Amino acid sequence: MRLTPAMERYVxxxxxxxARWGVNRSVAQIHALLYLAPKPITAEEIADTLSxxxxxVSMSLKELLAWGLVQRTPVKGDRRDHxxxxxxxxxxxxxxxxxxKKREIDPTLSILRACAMEAAxxxxxxxxxxxxxxxxxxxxxxxxxxYGQVKGLPKxxxxxxxxxxxxxxxxxxxxxxGKARGAGDG
Length: 186
Fold this sequence. Notes:
Layout: H1 5-20, H2 25-36, E1 41-42, H3 43-50, H4 54-67, E2 70-72, E3 82-85, H5 89-122, H6 127-150, H7 155-164
Antiparallel strand pairs: 1-3, 2-3
Helix pairs in contact: 1-2, 2-4, 3-4, 5-6
């Protein structure tokens, strides 16, 4: 597969962004290539196109398969594995958010719950420190609850909410000044 200058620029940029988001550069570049590819391609074609070692391609594909961002696709008359990326941007976003929540937020919630219980029981942790732990726990639990509610909304509703932007605030009751602030507010 030959990359046009625009495709190459996109693949390289996606690799840079992946690295900034904590994703291996090769994983991000392979995802970008598969997203742009007009048809499913083999690991060998990926390695050749991106000048990446075949072993690196194999490990990166395993990661992308685990995230659900790439799938194996059979090609008639060819016994090799071919791969293609999801094309629906909403599906890509929801899979990434779900995986990050599972890998990052959920374990953090478990640790924060344990820390909050331990701090409340140990008699040594300062009240201010306990409050910070409990505040962060409440904030992340609220965020997790919100995510659980929003992820089940139909795609057209989500798109509508995003397009509303800040106008959605019209539907949220206003609190009077001096009242309790939201979860996790410092």
